[in-house]
Amino acid sequence: MTSPFPVSSSAPGEGRIVVQLLPHGISALSAITFQYPLKLISPSPAAGQKSILVFLLTYGGGLVGGDQVHLTIDVKPEAKLSIVTQGHTKIFKSPSRDVITRQRLHVTLQDNAALCLLPDPVQPFKGSVYEQSQKFTLADTASLCLLDWVSAGRRARGEDWDLLAWRGRNEVWAAAESGGKPRLLLRDNVILEGDAADSKEKALRNKMQPTGIFGTLVLKGPLVEGLAAFILAEFAALPRIGARDFRSQDKMDKDNGLMLSPEENWRQARLKQEEADSVLWSAARVRGCTVVKFGARTVEGGRLWIGNLLKQDGSISRLFGDDSTMCVR
Amino acid sequence: MSSDTVDSSQSQAIEDEIVELEGRLEKAKARLNKAQVNQGPSIPPAKIPSSDVPLTSPTHHFLLLLSDSALPLGSFAFSSGLESYLAHTRPKSSFPTFLNFSLSSYASTTLPFVLAAHRHPIDLLELDDALDAAIMCTVGRRASVAQGRALLSIWDRSFKSALPAGASTAAVEALKEFTVLLRATSSNITTHLPTASAHLGPLFGAIAVILGMSLRQTAYVFMLSHVKALLSAAVRASMFGPYHAQKMLASVEVQEGIQKVIQQEWETKIEDAGQSVPVMDLWIGRHEMLYSRIFNS
């Protein structure tokens, strides 16, 4: 018997989000579809919300070996979307190296549209094989704030970069101008190749030491320009490595008695945290984008650090609403 | 029957003679060897055999030029993150560890572009642009562009006039167009997205194929030059002396290390090129944070 219902247009793991601006200036979903193992939830819109919030979830909180997720997002002109997760995206063990768990994301941001993607870290379990590919096509005036981070695995179970393979690719493209081709602005590719099960030497662990989390923050567009400038300024203001303090003890005591500005106090506290959690970071401008790379000894240390930076600047919460930063608090 | 016995006795006699002659030959050879050892070096051959000395072909001439550490690329100014690594890991720094990381990282990020440019030199401009989009830090970009521009100058001013016979005219033309575009870009700095940057990797591949080097030679020379630059930087950063550096350069570990990474990246598409040692980006990016530095990267 033929089904009376229309044929489903979505395939397993496929999802689609379309965001548009309503006449009274609020961003709203005009389409949201998803199929197992992908799950998308959006809280009902509240008056005065700054962006529409979508939870990117998976059944069971993770992806089992071989799962394929493919999410397409289209943000229409002037609209704003924030995507968060509820806890680490767990990547379970694959039965063999050939069974690849994949997550693909295709995002189009139209004129003056904005996306804030601040998820929890991806947590690849021992023996997992994972590929993540995220492609963002931005109109000239669109804005993007993207965080992509990966942890060493289940530390409580003694996992320490015991994954089999992990690949994360983030591409930022400039949308084609009339008659032209889209232009690649940025291609950030991180490749972690694990060791064979029988190998004694832990080559990947040695490469990653002593980091327990490694992340990349990509910023592009007018809305996040302030945050980018703030981070670059903080990077430039880092104390020089190997510098020595040539002041006399008297002078130091005198200087310590001086009132520091709130910014300087905040910076000193952050530098202490960077030292305590062995946070290493660098920031650079790459062809109109700003790329921040960071590593920290623990996941919590990394989260604290990036959250602190975003909070001090404050523009993400102001533009996208407080909920957009819930994963880095 | 009787004729057979005569034959067999004759052949027996000949065989005996052969055995005796062989014995004499051996003895004569032994005497000659002895005499030569006493004489010192062996007598030079009358003429250079062309079959086992390949250095006569222009290809090998250019192979030696490109692998020469006196090639004026300015590589001595860059340590590819070694200086920063030392500052970040003191006192637990280890050169062999860093060398392994650096080989793996440089091969996974850059070698696919060298190979791609060698295979399709006419795509030079696109490869250069794609590599520019894939370098995540200012310091690394500066190092790659400085050496790439130097190589392009060497090509333009020195190699171009000595093209080997049979060089691909399409590739030469692509290189010429690239040079013109690069000049136009440098005079027009206002655009934040350069049309051409001149990164070392793709240019090395394109120039090597024009000069007739094989794909494997190109990959090997490219990686070996990287190792040589690192060792030279290590000597100048007073990690060890020049003899130790030569010892490492000659070692089986370095030879195997280079072969291994070439094998790994042989089939890698440029879209899949990426950082295999993430912390390397941090070390190279943080080079600017060093209080005192002797290198540019």
Coarse structural class of chain B: mainly alpha
For the largest beta-sheet of chain A, the strand count, sense and barrel status come to: 8 strands, mixed
Overall body shape of chain B: extended
**Main sheet: strand order of chain A:** 3-4-7-10-13-16-18-17
Beta-strand content of chain A:
35-45%
Spell out the helices and strands of chain B N to C.
HHHHHHHHHHHH
| Contiguous uncertain segments of 5+ residues of chain B | none
Average pLDDT across residues of chain B? 88
What's the helical proportion of residues of chain A?
Answer: 10-25%
Shape of chain A: globular
Structural class of chain A: alpha/beta
Counting structural domains of chain B, the number is 1
Major protein interface: A-B, 38 and 37 residues
Order of helices and strands of chain A: EEEEEEEEEEEEEEEHEHHHEEHH
Strands of chain A, total number: 18
Distance between the termini of chain B: 92 Å
* Total count of helical runs of at least 4 residues of chain B: 12
In percent, how much strand structure appears in the residues of chain B?
under 5%
Distance between the termini of chain A: 53 Å
Report the uncertain regions of chain A: none
Organism (chain A): Hyaloscypha bicolor E
Family (chain A): Belongs to the UreD family.
Keywords (chain A): Chaperone
GO molecular function, one term (chain A): nickel cation binding
